[in-house]
Design goal:
Layout: H1 2-18, E1 21-26, E2 32-39, E3 43-49, E4 52-59, E5 67-73, E6 77-78, H2 82-89, E7 101-112, E8 116-125, E9 128-138, E10 143-144, E11 150-161, E12 180-194
Antiparallel strand pairs: 1-4, 1-12, 2-3, 2-12, 3-6, 4-5, 5-7, 7-8, 8-9, 9-11, 10-11, 11-12
InterPro entries: Lipid/polyisoprenoid-bd_YceI, TTHA0802/YceI-like_sf
Keywords: Signal
Domain Lipid/polyisoprenoid-binding YceI-like: 23-193
């Protein structure tokens, strides 16, 4: 029994030294979720979602064991044009009243080179979930801010077809083009604070 207790005590002391995973919270004040989509097939319309939250479980020893979850408030869409933003919140696009959040949950993390990752996961928009892959630069090295918080940052990009998620509204122009293109480029620039 004494030998068992000694072994248990040793494990309790060693485990914190061998743990490599850490938990991080997304800082919404220093993170942005941007999108870009062609309008009339001639110009890009850009916008942001102003309310975003998330967590990162980061394993520095084996980055492939890391996980990330992000939620985006659909009503927080902002293209700086009120009429357009109201239309984007409507059932024609995000239907923010019925589907108040979009979500991304990672399923696989793959290291690419020295500082790039491919993060596969499930993106849910308007209740429709599809697999997507984020191309990620980072996560940066840890820095300590002037208030004592430990931070890391990353930038992720992907492209989705909005119709895959039931975001179908558009009109056909005389030349056969669409008022709003189907492909949407998404960029996330995020900072995380260590718990």
């Amino acid at each position: 029994m004494k030998r068992f207790l000694a072994l248990l005590t040793m494990l309790v002391l060693i485990l914190p030294l061998t743990a490599t995973a850490s938990t991080w919270t997304l800082d919404p004040d220093h993170s942005t979720v941007q999108f870009k989509v062609k309008h009339l097939m001639i110009n890009n319309v850009k916008g942001v979602f102003e309310k975003v939250s998330g967590t990162l479980n980061l394993d520095d020893k084996d980055i492939t064991k890391s996980k990330v979850d992000v939620k985006i408030d659909t009503a927080s869409v902002n293209t700086h044009i009120k009429k357009r933003d109201d239309h984007l919140r409507s059932a024609d696009f995000f239907d923010a009243a019925k589907f108040p959040a979009m979500a991304f949950t990672s399923t696989k993390v793959e290291k690419v080179g020295t500082d790039k990752l491919k993060i596969a996961g499930n993106l849910t928009i308007k209740g429709v979930t599809r697999p997507v892959i984020l191309d990620v630069e980072g996560f940066s090295t840890e820095v300590k801010d002037p208030w004592g918080n430990i931070r890391r940052g990353a930038e992720a990009t992907t492209q989705v077809n909005r119709k895959d998620f039931g975001v179908n509204w558009s009109k056909t122009m005389d030349n056969g083009g669409m008022v709003v293109a189907e492909d949407v480029a998404i960029t996330l620039e995020v900072e995380f604070i260590k718990k």
